[in-house]
Design brief:
- This protein has 96 residues and is of the alpha+beta class.
- It has one domain.
- The protein is 52% helix and 20% strand.
- It contains three helices and three strands, in the order ββααβα.
- The chain is elongated, with a radius of gyration of 20 Å.
- 8% of the residues are buried.
Length: 96
């Protein structure tokens, strides 16, 4: 059985004295399908500080802000891990 799941996109209009700002927001289910990340992982990311909006009780995420946050958070961790591995290897080789 084929299911047809349409993307849910919301345009939020924030009016200030300086003009209007329009953002494309996804709910967690749509973001999960778009980025191929489980909803459980996205909820874990919320606890780690993923930017999101809750106009009511539902959670919405700007995909552009998500991409920037994801790269900044996980690439920084990857670089630190790589540096610590390099340090460990260098220390081991120096000890030989």
């Amino acid at each position: 059985m084929k299911t047809n799941i349409s993307k849910v996109q919301y345009n939020i209009n924030l009016n200030w004295d300086y003009g209007a700002i329009f953002m494309k927001l996804y709910d967690l289910k749509t973001l999960s399908m778009e980025k191929n990340i489980s909803i459980t992982s996205l909820r874990r990311f919320l606890k780690k500080g993923m930017p999101h909006y809750r106009p009511d009780r539902k959670i919405y995420v700007n995909p552009t802000e998500f991409d920037e946050w994801f790269i900044a958070t996980f690439q920084a961790n990857h670089i630190e891990t790589a540096k610590s591995i390099d340090t460990l290897i260098n220390n081991t080789l120096d000890a030989l």
